[in-house]
Amino acid sequence: AVFPLGIWLINVLAPDGYQKYGWEIIPFLILMLIVAAFPIIINKTVIFVLQGVSLAAFLQFGLLVEMLLTQMAVIAMLVKLRIPKTEYYRYPLNSLMFFAVSIFSALAYYLAGGTHQEIDVTEPRDLLSILLYMFTFFISNQLLISFIIYVRHRSKRVLLGKDLLWEGVSSIVVFPIGIILYMLYQEIEWLAFFLVGIPLMSV
Q1: What is the three-class DSSP state of 84?
Q2: DSSP letter, residue 119
Q3: How many helices (H) and strands (E) does the chain have?
Q4: Least crowded by CB within 10 Å, which of 1, 89, 90, 154?
Q5: What is the per-residue pLDDT for 107?
């Protein structure tokens, strides 16, 4: 991760450490890296659809693992985009942005009473926690992107533009796929990635 101090702090404050999961994390990481290799670019804005896998990883393993996987996927995406040296600032900037999005989303989830691993989406509390996580992820991501554009380029982003529309549509499709991935993982473990990975990469 680009911000090891932040990762360390999360590990101290929310010690659901990645060490105890071992190889279980690997399929999530592989799928996130594959998804990160095919970002959608609309009006020079990168639409990142890894939130489905990150949601499943968060529900299964907790904040620390989700954050670590997301940070690695963000770096992989930027490498794939082959950004010029003059834009290398995007590495720490995007890392910090997704770090904040992960924190905000997790806080919303925990405040709603959300837990990990033993989740029943038919239960109102569990479903509400997940929906609040998804809503917070989307809103915080959009607000941070708008803030960065304003500070960096001194221009206001059109909030209701095409990029927001595509981001919204992709989120509506991808987040439920993430829930399905989590549920299938509980039943058939790594085989779930073959069933869910293809439709996720086609978004």
Answers
A1: coil
A2: -
A3: 8, 2
A4: 154
A5: 94
CA triplet 96, 25, 49: central angle to 5 degrees? 50
d(CA 142, CA 113): 25
Q: Tokens 């942005």 map to which residue?
A: 97
- Quick count: other Cβ atoms within 10 Å of Cβ 56? 28
pLDDT along the chain (203 residues), means of 10: 61 58 84 82 63 91 89 87 84 88 94 87 90 93 83 65 70 86 88 77 60
CA distance 132 to 107: 10
Task: Give the whole-angstrom CA distance, residue 32 versus residue 76.
Answer: 9
Q: What gap in Å lies between CA 167 and CA 78, rounded to an integer?
A: 18
CB 16 within 8 A of CB 64: yes
